[in-house]
Write a structure and sequence with these properties.
Elements: E1 6-17, E2 20-26, E3 42-49, E4 52-59, E5 71-75, H1 81-88, E6 95-102, E7 115-120, H2 124-137, E8 142-148, H3 157-166, E9 171-177, H4 178-181, H5 186-192, E10 200-204, H6 207-219, E11 227-230, E12 254-259, E13 262-266, H7 274-280, E14 298-303, E15 306-308, H8 316-320, E16 323-325, E17 329-331, E18 335-339
Parallel strand pairs: 7-8, 7-10, 8-9, 10-11, 12-18
Antiparallel strand pairs: 1-2, 1-6, 2-5, 3-4, 3-6, 12-13, 14-16, 14-18, 15-17
Helix pairs in contact: 5-6
Length: about 350
């Protein structure tokens, strides 16, 4: 087992469409707290492949409010070594190496705004988790826009129909099919959100789909802080990672860490990442892939300077706001102060 991972057994396999399936996991009693999750989060998997240990993250479609076990849904990808193996080989009873829940694509505490969800293809997975949790945990009105290639590729079709029947006054579902309406465009996004201005938006799907929706919402004047976008990339293979070496760095003498409302002052050894220093001090900071692509270890630099070696998840705006990735960032000054989100 690699650091931070656990073995979970597959207790159910559900064929959702011809090219997507869901895996349901049994979580033993002693790991229940470790695998408690928020709607919209994902699980990381470490899978051996041709002598390498590959890491991939898949969102949970289950809701912590109504589903007794976590469920991830995985769609086949052309050339996808892990996604295709998950679809073709994994069976009930198999044990997989799983990282604890992570991710920030989650609902906030404020439910004053209408909720508008955009899912494209398998991007429906975290959106489905958020949808079910919101229906059960609040009275917010919800509109789901779900884009797919054609009707046969609609994941969770029957479950969505049942939810629409169960919550006719609160839930509106709009299907956009490439085979019928063509690809979703800016004008269509503007039309779909008419009357829901000032809402909270969650977007997940193929990159062009997400870019279109986000661009259209921003052009309408919607607040960027209420537009949430979930982007996943596959990391390079372990033997393809090139360790960056920076010269002229000043040793960090004091690393201050705010975690769960408490302040900690710890030491930082030369060459250590922020995550490594926190772990050496016994701090249980959030983390998952440790490869710079999942965002689980996001934290803000509130004082001092750090240098980020690899970043596949933080946007330019987030970097400008002081966010960094603890697994890929090193302190480069004598004093650095971090804050991990609550």
């Amino acid at each position: 087992m690699s650091m931070g991972s656990y073995r979970l057994q597959v207790c159910a396999v559900i064929d959702e469409t011809a090219d997507a399936r869901s895996l349901v996991f049994e979580v033993p009693e002693h790991l229940r707290a470790r695998f408690h999750y928020k709607a919209g989060q994902f699980l990381g998997f470490r899978v051996p492949c041709a002598g390498k240990l590959l890491t991939r993250c898949y969102s949970m479609a289950s809701s912590p409010l109504c589903d007794p076990r976590p469920k991830v849904t995985i769609k086949r990808v052309e050339g996808g070594r892990v996604s295709n193996w998950m679809n073709q080989q994994v069976q009930v009873g198999d044990w997989l190496e799983v990282l604890p829940p992570a991710g920030h694509f989650c609902l906030g505490d404020d439910s004053a705004w209408p909720l508008v969800l955009f899912g494209g293809g398998s991007g429906i997975t975290p959106v489905m988790s958020i949808l079910k949790s919101t229906l059960l945990g609040s009275e917010r009105p919800i509109k789901l826009v779900y884009a797919n290639r054609d009707e046969a590729s609609v994941i969770f079709r029957d479950e969505l129909r049942q939810l629409a029947r169960d919550y006719p006054e609160r839930l509106e579902i709009v299907h956009v099919l490439d085979s019928v309406q063509g690809f979703l465009g800016d004008a269509q996004v503007r039309q779909l959100v008419r009357g829901l201005e000032g809402g909270e938006y969650f977007i997940c799907g193929p990159a062009p789909f997400m870019d279109t929706v986000e661009r259209a919402l921003l052009a309408l004047g919607e607040a960027a802080e209420r537009i949430h976008v979930e982007r996943f990339v596959s990391p390079p293979d372990p033997d393809e990672v090139v360790e960056q070496v920076f010269e002229g760095e000043v040793a960090c003498e004091s690393l201050l860490v705010e975690l769960d409302g408490q302040q900690h002052e710890i030491t930082c050894q030369p060459g250590e990442t922020l995550l490594q220093s926190c772990r050496s001090a016994g701090l249980d900071v959030p983390s998952s892939c440790e490869e710079g692509f999942c965002g689980a270890c996001m934290c803000t630099v509130q004082e001092g300077e750090t240098r980020l070696a690899r970043n596949d998840v933080l946007s330019a705006a987030e970097l400008a706001a002081g966010w960094t990735l603890a697994c890929q960032s090193r302190p480069i000054g004598p004093r650095v102060r971090l804050r991990f989100p609550d």
